[in-house]
Each structure stands twice: as structure tokens, then as C-alpha cells.
Amino acid sequence: MKEWYIGCDLGGTNLRAALVNVTNGSVRQAISTPTLSREGPNAVIQRMIDLFHRVIKESGIPLDEIGGIGIGVPGTVDMERGVVLFLPNLPTTWPNIPLAEYIQKGTTLPTVILNDVRAITFGEWRFGAGQGVDTMACFAIGTGIGGGLVINRQLHLGFGGTAGELGHITVDVNGPRCGCGNYGCVEVFASGPAIAAMGIKAVVQGWTTQIGTLVDYDLNRITPEVIARAARNGDAIAREIFEIAGGYIGTAVANVVVAINPQRVVIAGGVAQAGDLLLEPIRRTLHKRVFVAPKERVEIVPSTLGNNAGVIGAALWAHHYHTRS
């Protein structure tokens, strides 16, 4: 069995790739390069091919010892055909791009694709915060909110890999419109931009908060990280913003808990770096809202693989896909 697979995270800003040992999750030769997505799919795909060749060359691992390539894609894909269907945050949205075929031609390595947060979920379950449980859910909180599910030790994919879109659980039936077309999704209330918007509103309305001071009142510089810094400094408004966001995420988590009873819920993504500022209101909301499932047995934990979660999960999925019976 080949132990080394390439994992790649196709991001709107950066491409990140590495060789991953699928038996122990170790990562070798992780390299990141700008996506430059404005140049269009063809240019980005060629950049990915060049990146994979560079990873292979610098790792020193012979090509014939590498089992394949897995790519985590930030959008909707046809996993069986290896075709990208819709990438909402990349120019042109990449409709019907046969990504796996192009990469395989450019590298000679068998290639598979899956949603990027499903890849994070798979990586965290095998070698990260989800190790040792049969059923887990993952919420990745960043520019949007992505999700993934492992049920009975299987990555749950549904039709075409579309299962697990936990960021689009409705938490307010009268809420504002979401980018997905629905109204009141948790992503609308608790994504990175939603948290930043609450901070901007607080500053514009003249509330007593450190948030504006920390960025010299440049509203464009207000981010969840800035708000978290203010909260850790004892800023009541900043702490309240994370209470609100965590409450909405906790409501979505409660819905998942009553549906599938996960033993663990992993909170990943850049916003999760706020730590207990976000995790504690999630936990409190879960306990407040769940009555028909053993909520005390559900762990809410931060991810542990960091930036490597996506590449590890994508590589693991490539190995799983090519060795399944």
C-alpha cells in the first residue's frame, strides 16, 4: 500500500499543498502559494499542477511512491466525475470545470475532489480533535460557515457530497437572506463577516468599546480577531458580540445533536481561534436547548490540526477513494 498522498486546499486567496502520510497523518513539504483566482480557472489549475510538481520534487519522494492527489474545493462538486460545479467565492464561479481530469493529465497521478470542509472534517476525525469517536460534526467558521459529518465512522456525503452544509441550518425563520438563497441561516449571524459587522455597528453607533480604538477607527480593519482582542481586554461589548455569535452557532449545534447524537462537535476555522470566547456560549446554548438527547455526553472542542486539516483530509480521502473495495 502506498503511504504518501498529496493533499491540496484550494482557497480563494492561497493554494496549499503537502505530502501526507496516510498511516499516521504526518505532513511533509507543505507549500502555500497565491491562488490569483482573478486570472481564471485555467491559470489557477496550471498553478496547482506546478505546485504539485514542486511539492514532489522538494520532498524527495519518488513519483511512483505517491498514491494520488486529493483536492478540497470551496464549493459544490460532483465527486464521482471530479467536476467542480460552483465556487461562490471565486471569479467566474468555475461552472462544470473537470478539475480532477485536468490535474491528473498534468501530474499523471489519480485525482479526486471533495468539498473543503468535508476534507477538514475527515482530517480532524482521523488525526485531529475527532479521534476516537464514531460520530462527530464539524463547523468551520470563517468567511462563511462550512460543515461536515462523520456518522458511524463514515464521512457522510449524501447526494454528490452535499451533505453536511451545517452553516445553512436555519436558526431564525424570519432572519435576513443568506448567500445560499435561504433566510436565517446560521452563516448570516455568526460567520467572520457577521461578527465583524457587529463590531463595526458598535463603533459607528458610538457604544463604549475598545474596538474602534484598536484600529484607529478605521472600520475596514475591524475583524473577529480585533473584537476577540478587545474581549480579552475586558471589553463588555466585544464579549457580548461573541455571546451572540456563539448563541446562534450553539442553536445550530443543538439541531445537529438532536438529529445525529454526535459524541463530539469540532469547531474549526479562523474565527475558532477566539477559543472559549466562542466555545463557552456554544456550550451553554447547547445545554439550554437540548432536552431529548444526552447533551452532557456531547463534547464541544476546538480543532487541533490548524492549517493542515484540509490538506490532511483531502489526502486521506484520495487514499480512501482509491483503495475502497
What does this structure look like?
The protein folds into two domains: 4-122 and 307-323, ATPase, nucleotide binding domain (Nucleotidyltransferase, domain 5, 2-Layer Sandwich), CATH 3.30.420.40; 133-303, ATPase, nucleotide binding domain (Nucleotidyltransferase, domain 5), CATH 3.30.420.40. Helix content is 38%, strand content 21%. The protein has ten helices and twelve strands. The chain has a five-stranded mixed beta sheet. A five-stranded mixed beta sheet has the order 10-9-8-11-12, sandwiched between helices.
Would you summarize the structure shown here?
By secondary structure, the protein is α/β, with parallel strands linked by helices. It has helices spanning 41-59, 99-107, 116-127, 186-190, 192-204, 211-214, 224-232, 236-260, 276-289, 309-323; strands at 4-10, 14-21, 27-34, 66-73, 76-78, 83-86, 111-115, 136-141, 145-151, 154-156, 264-268, 299-302.
Any chance you could write out the topology, listing elements then pairs?
Blueprint: E1 4-10, E2 14-21, E3 27-34, H1 41-59, E4 66-73, E5 76-78, E6 83-86, H2 99-107, E7 111-115, H3 116-127, E8 136-141, E9 145-151, E10 154-156, H4 186-190, H5 192-204, H6 211-214, H7 224-232, H8 236-260, E11 264-268, H9 276-289, E12 299-302, H10 309-323
Parallel strand pairs: 1-4, 4-7, 8-11, 11-12
Antiparallel strand pairs: 1-2, 2-3, 5-6, 8-9, 9-10
